[in-house]
Design brief:
This protein has 198 residues and is mainly alpha-helical. It has seven helices and no strands. The protein has one domain. α1 crosses α5 and α6 crosses α7. The termini are far apart. Keywords: Membrane, Transmembrane, Transmembrane helix. This is Yip1 domain-containing protein.
Length: 198
C-alpha cells in the first residue's frame, strides 16, 4: 500500500498537471502497474467514506419511527453503492476508449481518476462534519459543495486534456463519463437497495 509520502507525491503531480505543467508527469506512474496501484486510493478514502456512511445513517434514521434499528446490512449496502459508483464509470470509459482505438490512454485516465478522489473525498467529508456541528450552515455548506464540484470538474478536465493529447472533445467526454454515471448510479442504487433517506 502506498504510504503518505507517496500519495503526496502523486497529488503534487496532479496539481502540476492541472496547471498544465508537464513536470507533473514526473510525479505519477501512468503505466499499467501504476494503474493497478492507484486502486489503493479506495483504501485511502475509507476513513472519509465511513464518516459519510455515518452521516447517511443519521439522515436515514431521521425519517424512521422511534425504536427503528439499522443493522450491519445498511453499511454493507452503502459499501456496494460506493464500489459500484467507483468502478462502473471506469468500465464505461474503458469500453469507450477501446471502441475508439484509444486504449493507450486508459492507464493514465484510471490512475488520475483514482488518486484525484482522495483529496476531494476528505474535502467533502469536512463539509459533512461542519454541517453536523453547525446545522445552521446549510447554505454555506451547499455553496462550498458547489465550489468543490466545480474544482473537481475543472481539474479533471484540465488533466485529461493533457493526457488525451489536447483533444477537447475527448477530454470533455471522459470528464462527463467519469462523473455523471457515478452520481446517477449512486442515486438509483440507494433507492433500489432501500437506503435512500426519506
Amino acid at each position: 500500500m502506498p504510504g503518505i509520502d507517496e500519495v503526496r507525491f502523486y497529488l503534487r503531480g496532479l496539481v502540476l498537471l492541472a496547471r498544465h505543467d508537464p513536470q507533473g508527469f514526473r510525479f505519477l506512474d501512468l503505466t499499467d502497474r501504476g494503474m493497478m496501484r492507484s486502486f489503493w486510493a479506495i483504501v485511502w478514502c475509507l476513513p472519509a467514506m465511513i464518516i459519510s456512511w455515518l452521516w447517511r445513517r443519521m439522515l436515514f434514521m431521521d425519517g424512521m419511527p422511534d425504536g427503528f434499528r439499522l443493522g450491519w446490512i445498511f453499511y454493507f449496502r452503502l459499501g456496494l453503492v460506493e464500489a459500484a459508483s467507483w468502478i462502473f464509470p471506469l468500465v464505461i470509459v474503458g469500453l469507450m476508449l477501446f471502441a475508439l482505438g484509444a486504449s493507450r490512454f486508459l492507464p493514465a485516465v484510471v490512475t488520475i481518476n483514482n488518486w484525484l478522489a482522495v483529496p476531494f473525498s476528505y474535502a467533502y467529508t469536512a463539509l459533512l462534519i461542519l454541517l453536523v456541528f453547525v446545522p445552521g450552515a446549510v447554505g454555506l455548506v451547499s455553496l462550498l459543495q458547489l465550489v468543490l464540484v466545480l474544482m473537481l470538474v475543472t481539474m479533471l478536465f484540465r488533466i485529461l486534456y493533457i493526457i488525451c493529447e489536447k483533444q477537447n472533445l475527448m477530454a470533455g467526454t471522459l470528464t462527463m463519463l467519469l462523473l455523471v454515471p457515478s452520481l446517477l448510479l449512486a442515486d438509483w442504487l440507494q433507492r433500489f437497495l432501500g437506503i435512500y433517506p426519506l
